[in-house]
Amino acid sequence: MKQLIFVVFVLVSNFSFSQINTGKTLESRHLAKAEDDKEFDNGSTLTREQLLKIPGNELAELGKIWGFLKYHHPAVGSGKYNWDYELFRILLKYKDAGNKQAKQTLLMSWIDSLGPFEERKYAYTQSGKIALHPDLSWIQSSGLHEKLKSRLMAVKNAERTAEHYYVGAMPDENPEFKNENPYESMHYPDAGFRLLALFRYWNMIQYYFPYRNLTDGSWNDVLVEFIPQFLNAADEIDYKLTALKLIAQINDTHADMQGDSVLNNYFGDRNAALDVSFIENKAIVTGYHHKVLGEKSGLKKGDILQKINGKAVAEIIRESLPITPASNYPTQLRKIATRLLRTNDSLIVVDYKRGLETGRLALKSYDLKTMQIPRKNQRKDTCFRMIRSDISYLYPGSFKNRYLPKIRPEILKSRGLIIDLRCYPSDDLVDTFSHILLPSPRKFVKYSVAKLTEPGLFEFTSPIQTGAENGDYFKGQVVILINELTQSAAEYTAMAFQTAPKVKVIGSTTAGADGNTSAIYLPGNIMTYISGLGVFYPDGRQTQRVGIIPDIEISTTIKGITEDRDELIEKAIEIINGK
Fold first, then answer.
1. What is residue 348's three-state secondary structure?
2. Nearest to 550 by CA among 572, 530, 535, 528
3. Model confidence at 203, in pLDDT bands (50, 70, 90)?
4. CATH numeric code, 384-576
5. In CATH, what number does 265-371 get?
6. b/e string for 402-428 if b means 16 or more Cβ within 10 A?
7. Strand 175-177 relative to strand 347-354: parallel, antiparallel, unpaired?
8. What is the CA angle 35-37-42, rounded to 5?
9. Fewer Cβ atoms within 10 Å of its own Cβ: the N or the C terminal residue of the chain?
10. Tens digits of per-residue pLDDT, 86-144?
């Protein structure tokens, strides 16, 4: 398997369906009958009132069967059908079908209309390689009658190939969702298209999310819960906030809605010139986006923000959590902190506490575009320096592999090396830097990948190793610094470096989102991601949600921020000095 490649999230104002990779070759565009179906290009013709008359559990039943057929039936996989529009066709009949028995008879006829197929001839995966089993328990537990169950189980056993019109594998084996129209002109999609968005996303997670089993609740229950929310979404912002709430259900820090101008405006296009982080569960001023403007604000490092525009920070957190996708609570707080001082007004009123004193200030806000605020997990810093004459420090956030020949001699003569992974690496250090840290090859990771011929099944790969035979490796103490800013490629890098002979990992909970990302497009020009590849230690321990577990847990304190000290670096120096 090739080296993992991770997506760095940036905000983009808009994207066009014509600009994205839909996975279409010239041949597939010519041959796929789905391309010729234009019937619902201008709307589904389905209304909120019509769809709300259908019991939620029956709509959920249809949504699961629609997605099951999408990924299991060979005729759908061949591109014979525009499966979005087939949903609208069956819904138009389904809403008038009468009782549940009549609806299930309709569904059987629908399945039969897709045509015959061959039974599969390929072997099952060996049980020892299975990372995640498909979850088709709903077929038996949804109250479907026996004939419909039999039809579905026959489709489950259909012979399929890895060539599929709607899903494939990227070069690094994470899923690629292909030919999924984002309907970019539909700023506020009609009720049918809003339901399509829910069904599309739910089934992508059901069959191609390697961490489906790690969500807080039952994924099977999510569909019924969200059907009325999507149908009742009153306008564009309500629809997109509902979608964001749905995305948060998978507990994945990689998941978010990228570059959406409506949401950007909702959260605010302006920001104060301050950096805020949650420390000791309080919103703390930790620095300045712009030093001069930040210092002019009147707030100092270590100040505690208690209210924003009259609303308590605790209340803002409570309201924000359901629409803040992240793998764990510290990372949710990290994301919420970046939005605390966003606004569309010229001023932000804050109540703060400094020691025993309290006060209120009106902070000037600045346009986000002109402010050029850096990513939260990327500060300006030299990539390498000697903290002391015998202790070296590496900051991967600005390090480039081309610097390695120059700094290698300095590292090797050091007694200790601090690697600060509270950032996103600007270059791939796993193979290059492992040659300095390791005396021989070490296994550090294995992946789980989707088996395209059996939707919902994820298989383990063999463990991957890094490093090489090397007598001239670093023999001193290595200390790796981590916290909630350590995400994705940074977590992967920490896993590799953890195999060094003398290493300590210190800090706090990381972002818990590892593995190549796969893009998802939903009606209304919504773009989001999932962690599409499972990442595990060689012994099978998970990294998703739990992140990299430190050997020594230590967090920044309010006192440390006030005194402008880096307590993790101080602790690292103590470890190197044998204290």
1. strand
2. 572
3. very high
4. 3.90.226.10
5. 2.30.42.10
6. eebeebeeebeebebbbbbbbbbbbbb
7. unpaired
8. 115
9. C
10. 999 999 999 999 898 999 999 999 999 999 999 886 666 677 799 999 999 999 987 89
Alpha carbon distances (Å) from 330 to 422, 427, 434: 14, 26, 29
SS3 label, residue 22: coil
Distances 173 to 421, 487, 532 between C-alpha atoms, Å: 26, 20, 8
Positive or negative torsion for Cα 408, 410, 414, 418: negative
CB of 494 closer than 8 Å to CB of 480: yes
Q: Give percent above pLDDT 90 in the chain.
A: 86
Q: What is the dihedral of CA 504, 555, 432, 10, to 10 degrees?
A: 160
Q: Going by C-beta distance under 8 Å and a sequence separation of 6 or more, which residues neighbour residue 370? A: none
Distance CA 168, CA 159 (A): 17
Q: Which helix (H) or strand (E) holds 131?
A: strand 130-132
Q: Which two tokens stand for residue 5?
A: 């490649």
> Can you give the pTM of this predicted structure?
0.92
pLDDT in tens, 227-264: 999 999 999 999 999 999 999 999 999 999 978 999 99
Per the structure block, which two tokens stand in for 251? 């507990």
478 strand-pairing partners: 417, 503
The three-point CA angle 455-136-541 to 5° equals 70
Hey, is 140 helix, strand or coil?
A: helix
C-alpha dihedral over 420, 426, 431, 437, to 10 degrees? -20
Q: Please, which pLDDT band fits residue 372 given cuts at 50, 70 and 90?
A: low
Q: Give ranges for CATH 2.30.42.10 in the chain.
A: 265-371
Six-digit token string for 112: 């039969």
Q: How confident is the model at residue 11, as a pLDDT?
A: 32
| pLDDT for the residue 379 | 54
Alpha-carbon span 350 to 308, nearest angstrom: 5
DSSP, collapsed to helix, strand or coil, labels residue 291 as: helix
From residue 409, alpha-carbon distances to 334, 489, 572 in Å are: 37, 26, 21
pLDDT value at 293 more than 80? no
Q: Is-contact 205 219, C-beta < 8 A? A: yes
